[in-house]
Amino acid sequence: MAFEEPDSPVCRTASLSDLDAIRALEVVEFEHLAYPYFVLRQLFELHGANWTVAENAGVVCGYVLTAVDGDGTAWFLGFAVASACRGRGFGRVLLEAALAQCRKVHAEQVYVTVKPGNRSAYHLYKEIGFAWVDHEVDYFGTDEPRDVLVHRIYH
Ligand SMILES: CC(C)(COP(=O)(O)OP(=O)(O)OC[C@H]1O[C@@H](n2cnc3c(N)ncnc32)[C@H](O)[C@@H]1OP(=O)(O)O)[C@@H](O)C(=O)NCCC(=O)NCCS
To answer: Any idea where the N-acetyltransferase domain is (predicted)?
Structure first.
Protein backbone atom coordinates (compact mmCIF):
# COMPACT_ATOMS: atom_id res chain seq x y z
CA MET A 1 0.00 0.00 0.00
CA ALA A 2 1.38 3.41 -0.94
CA PHE A 3 1.63 6.01 1.77
CA GLU A 4 -0.05 9.26 0.88
CA GLU A 5 1.74 12.50 1.61
CA PRO A 6 -0.16 14.40 4.29
CA ASP A 7 -1.63 17.47 2.63
CA SER A 8 -0.80 19.73 5.49
CA PRO A 9 2.61 21.13 6.28
CA VAL A 10 4.33 20.80 9.62
CA CYS A 11 4.94 24.26 11.02
CA ARG A 12 7.79 24.86 13.43
CA THR A 13 10.15 27.57 14.62
CA ALA A 14 12.99 28.27 12.19
CA SER A 15 16.54 27.24 12.97
CA LEU A 16 19.82 28.51 11.62
CA SER A 17 20.09 25.54 9.28
CA ASP A 18 16.87 26.69 7.52
CA LEU A 19 18.46 29.89 6.24
CA ASP A 20 19.72 28.32 3.00
CA ALA A 21 16.24 27.07 2.16
CA ILE A 22 14.67 30.42 3.07
CA ARG A 23 17.23 32.25 0.99
CA ALA A 24 16.59 29.94 -1.99
CA LEU A 25 12.84 30.62 -1.82
CA GLU A 26 13.46 34.36 -1.40
CA VAL A 27 15.56 34.48 -4.58
CA VAL A 28 12.95 32.66 -6.65
CA GLU A 29 10.00 34.65 -5.32
CA PHE A 30 11.37 38.12 -4.78
CA GLU A 31 14.28 38.31 -7.24
CA HIS A 32 16.07 41.67 -6.83
CA LEU A 33 14.14 42.34 -3.63
CA ALA A 34 15.20 39.04 -2.01
CA TYR A 35 16.99 39.43 1.29
CA PRO A 36 20.69 38.67 0.85
CA TYR A 37 21.95 35.83 3.03
CA PHE A 38 23.84 38.19 5.31
CA VAL A 39 20.68 40.22 5.98
CA LEU A 40 18.74 37.04 6.70
CA ARG A 41 21.46 35.98 9.09
CA GLN A 42 21.40 39.26 10.97
CA LEU A 43 17.58 39.31 11.06
CA PHE A 44 17.71 35.76 12.33
CA GLU A 45 19.93 36.83 15.23
CA LEU A 46 17.29 39.37 16.25
CA HIS A 47 14.05 37.65 15.35
CA GLY A 48 14.65 34.01 14.44
CA ALA A 49 12.90 32.77 17.57
CA ASN A 50 9.67 34.15 16.09
CA TRP A 51 10.12 32.82 12.55
CA THR A 52 7.88 30.04 11.32
CA VAL A 53 8.81 27.54 8.62
CA ALA A 54 6.60 24.94 6.99
CA GLU A 55 7.95 21.52 6.09
CA ASN A 56 6.44 19.12 3.64
CA ALA A 57 7.92 15.61 3.54
CA GLY A 58 10.85 16.91 5.60
CA VAL A 59 11.67 19.75 3.19
CA VAL A 60 11.21 23.43 4.00
CA CYS A 61 8.51 24.66 1.63
CA GLY A 62 7.53 27.99 3.14
CA TYR A 63 8.22 30.56 5.78
CA VAL A 64 6.99 33.63 7.58
CA LEU A 65 9.72 35.95 8.87
CA THR A 66 8.18 37.68 11.87
CA ALA A 67 9.78 40.57 13.70
CA VAL A 68 8.38 41.76 17.02
CA ASP A 69 9.40 44.94 18.80
CA GLY A 70 9.18 45.45 22.54
CA ASP A 71 6.10 47.60 22.20
CA GLY A 72 3.44 45.20 20.95
CA THR A 73 4.05 45.67 17.24
CA ALA A 74 5.01 42.83 14.90
CA TRP A 75 5.82 42.74 11.20
CA PHE A 76 5.76 39.89 8.75
CA LEU A 77 8.96 40.74 6.89
CA GLY A 78 8.79 37.82 4.49
CA PHE A 79 6.27 35.18 3.48
CA ALA A 80 6.39 32.63 0.71
CA VAL A 81 5.43 29.07 -0.19
CA ALA A 82 7.37 27.07 -2.79
CA SER A 83 5.51 27.11 -6.09
CA ALA A 84 5.17 23.31 -6.13
CA CYS A 85 3.25 23.44 -2.85
CA ARG A 86 0.86 26.29 -3.58
CA GLY A 87 -2.89 26.20 -3.66
CA ARG A 88 -3.07 23.49 -0.97
CA GLY A 89 -3.67 25.71 2.02
CA PHE A 90 -0.02 25.82 3.14
CA GLY A 91 0.07 29.62 3.01
CA ARG A 92 -2.97 29.89 5.23
CA VAL A 93 -1.60 27.35 7.73
CA LEU A 94 1.70 29.21 7.86
CA LEU A 95 0.06 32.59 8.42
CA GLU A 96 -2.13 31.16 11.16
CA ALA A 97 0.92 29.62 12.87
CA ALA A 98 2.79 32.93 12.55
CA LEU A 99 -0.16 34.83 14.03
CA ALA A 100 -0.34 32.32 16.89
CA GLN A 101 3.32 33.06 17.61
CA CYS A 102 2.57 36.82 17.59
CA ARG A 103 -0.23 36.23 20.06
CA LYS A 104 2.08 34.13 22.23
CA VAL A 105 4.61 36.96 22.50
CA HIS A 106 1.81 39.45 23.25
CA ALA A 107 1.95 41.41 19.99
CA GLU A 108 -1.09 43.63 19.62
CA GLN A 109 -0.80 44.53 15.96
CA VAL A 110 0.84 42.76 13.08
CA TYR A 111 1.78 44.65 9.92
CA VAL A 112 2.61 43.39 6.49
CA THR A 113 3.23 44.93 3.09
CA VAL A 114 1.73 43.49 -0.07
CA LYS A 115 2.24 44.40 -3.68
CA PRO A 116 -1.00 45.67 -5.22
CA GLY A 117 -2.09 42.96 -7.63
CA ASN A 118 -0.70 40.07 -5.58
CA ARG A 119 -4.16 38.60 -5.46
CA SER A 120 -3.48 35.31 -3.67
CA ALA A 121 -1.50 37.02 -0.89
CA TYR A 122 -4.07 39.79 -0.59
CA HIS A 123 -6.90 37.27 -0.48
CA LEU A 124 -5.20 35.28 2.27
CA TYR A 125 -4.36 38.29 4.41
CA LYS A 126 -7.93 39.56 4.16
CA GLU A 127 -9.36 36.14 4.97
CA ILE A 128 -7.37 35.85 8.15
CA GLY A 129 -8.28 39.31 9.35
CA PHE A 130 -5.81 41.84 7.97
CA ALA A 131 -7.20 45.21 6.92
CA TRP A 132 -5.74 47.85 4.62
CA VAL A 133 -4.17 50.87 6.35
CA ASP A 134 -1.91 52.57 3.83
CA HIS A 135 -0.50 52.68 0.33
CA GLU A 136 2.92 54.00 -0.62
CA VAL A 137 3.83 54.49 -4.25
CA ASP A 138 7.57 53.99 -3.76
CA TYR A 139 7.52 51.91 -0.60
CA PHE A 140 10.48 49.75 -1.69
CA GLY A 141 11.94 52.37 -4.04
CA THR A 142 10.96 53.56 -7.49
CA ASP A 143 8.14 51.56 -9.07
CA GLU A 144 7.79 49.32 -6.04
CA PRO A 145 4.44 50.32 -4.52
CA ARG A 146 3.07 48.46 -1.55
CA ASP A 147 -0.11 48.41 0.46
CA VAL A 148 0.31 48.18 4.22
CA LEU A 149 -2.12 45.92 6.07
CA VAL A 150 -2.63 45.39 9.77
CA HIS A 151 -4.09 42.65 11.90
CA ARG A 152 -5.14 43.57 15.44
CA ILE A 153 -4.76 40.96 18.14
CA TYR A 154 -7.02 41.26 21.17
CA HIS A 155 -5.70 39.58 24.29
C1 LIG B 1 1.04 34.07 -1.44
C2 LIG B 1 1.47 32.60 -1.22
C3 LIG B 1 2.38 32.53 -0.02
C4 LIG B 1 0.22 31.75 -1.00
O5 LIG B 1 0.62 30.43 -0.71
P6 LIG B 1 -0.38 29.19 -0.92
O7 LIG B 1 0.21 28.03 -0.23
O8 LIG B 1 -0.73 29.03 -2.34
O9 LIG B 1 -1.65 29.70 -0.12
P10 LIG B 1 -3.02 28.91 0.16
O11 LIG B 1 -3.08 27.69 -0.68
O12 LIG B 1 -3.15 28.74 1.64
O13 LIG B 1 -4.12 29.97 -0.25
C14 LIG B 1 -4.10 30.64 -1.46
C15 LIG B 1 -5.41 31.40 -1.54
O16 LIG B 1 -5.33 32.35 -2.58
C17 LIG B 1 -6.44 32.16 -3.41
N18 LIG B 1 -6.04 32.62 -4.74
C19 LIG B 1 -5.15 32.06 -5.57
N20 LIG B 1 -5.07 32.80 -6.68
C21 LIG B 1 -5.91 33.85 -6.52
C22 LIG B 1 -6.27 34.97 -7.32
N23 LIG B 1 -5.72 35.16 -8.51
N24 LIG B 1 -7.17 35.85 -6.83
C25 LIG B 1 -7.74 35.68 -5.61
N26 LIG B 1 -7.43 34.63 -4.80
C27 LIG B 1 -6.53 33.73 -5.27
C28 LIG B 1 -6.76 30.69 -3.32
O29 LIG B 1 -8.08 30.41 -3.72
C30 LIG B 1 -6.56 30.46 -1.84
O31 LIG B 1 -7.66 30.94 -1.10
P32 LIG B 1 -8.73 29.96 -0.42
O33 LIG B 1 -7.96 29.13 0.59
O34 LIG B 1 -9.70 30.87 0.23
O35 LIG B 1 -9.30 29.15 -1.54
C36 LIG B 1 2.22 32.06 -2.47
O37 LIG B 1 1.42 32.26 -3.61
C38 LIG B 1 3.59 32.68 -2.68
O39 LIG B 1 4.57 32.24 -2.10
N40 LIG B 1 3.66 33.67 -3.56
C41 LIG B 1 4.95 34.30 -3.90
C42 LIG B 1 5.50 35.09 -2.73
C43 LIG B 1 4.51 36.11 -2.24
O44 LIG B 1 3.81 36.75 -3.02
N45 LIG B 1 4.47 36.26 -0.91
C46 LIG B 1 3.59 37.21 -0.25
C47 LIG B 1 4.30 38.49 -0.13
S48 LIG B 1 3.20 39.73 0.51
So the answer is: 9-154
